Amino acid sequence: MFSKKKKNDNETTNMENNAEAQVTNEETTAAQNAAAEQGGAESGAEETNTEATPELSVEEKLKQENAALNDKYLRLFAEFDNYKRRTQKERIELLQTAGKDVIVSLLTILDDFDRANKAAETAVEVGPIKEGVQLVHNKLMSVLGQKGLKVMESINTPFDTDLHEAITKVPAPSEELKGKVIDELEKGYTLNEKVIRFAKVVVGS
To answer: Cβ contacts of residue 147 below 8 Å, gap of 6+?
Structure first.
C-alpha cells in the first residue's frame, strides 16, 4: 500500500515538473519572439531613417563647394591685406631712417662750418677764410663721395640727353665744339652710377 502511494506521489511530482518545464519553455519562446519582433522593428526604423536621408543633389554639392571656395578666398584676401599693410609700414620706416647714416656723417661738417663762421667774425685777412671754406668743401665732397655721390664732368663733352639739360644754344667757337657742352650753369650728380640731377648746360651749335 505504501509502495502504491509512493508511486502515485512520484507520478504527481513528475507531472508537476513537466508542467513547470512546459511553462518555462513557453515563456522562453514568447520572450524570443518578442525580442525578434523588437529587433525587426528597430531594423525597420533604421531602414526608414536611412531612406529618410536622401543624397545631396548636384546643385547642393556645388553650393557647398562654392561656399568652401568663398571661405578660402576670404581667408587668403585677409592674409594678403595684412601682408600689404605690414610691408607698407616697413617701407615707411625705411624711408624715414634711410638717410640717417648720411646725416650723421654730415654733422662733423656742420661743426666745421660753425667754427668757420666764428673765425670769420674776427678775421682780418680773407686768405685764411677762403682756405678754411675750401677745406670744409673738400671734406663735404669726400664724405658724400663715400656714399656714392659723383660730380658729372660735362664741359667739352658731347651733349647727352640722359645726362644733360640744355638751357640754351650758342654758336660754337670752333668746329670741334659743335654739339658739345660749352658751359655749365649747374653741376649734375650721380648716386651709385644713377643720375639724381641733370647738369644744366649751354650747348654749342
So the answer is: 102, 105, 191
Phi and psi at residue 194, to the nearest 5°: -115, 135
- Three cell numbers, residue 156: 667739352
- Which neighbouring-strand residues pair with 165? 200
Residue 152 grid coordinates:
658729372
Residues 6 or more apart from 136 whose CB is under 8 A from it?
109, 112, 113, 116
pLDDT tens profile 165-204: 999 999 988 888 899 999 999 999 999 999 999 999 999 9
- The whole-angstrom separation of Cα 9 and Cα 161 is 140
Torsion 122-128-130-134 (CA) sign: negative
Q: Which residue has the cell 531613417?
A: 49
Domains, the chain, in order of start with CATH, read: 76-147 (no CATH), 150-205 (2.30.22.10)
Q: What is residue 30's predicted lDDT score, i.e. its pLDDT?
A: 57
> Which residue type does 111 have?
D
pTM of the model: 0.52
The tens digit of pLDDT for each residue in 77-124 reads: 999 999 999 999 888 888 777 778 888 889 999 999 898 888 888 878
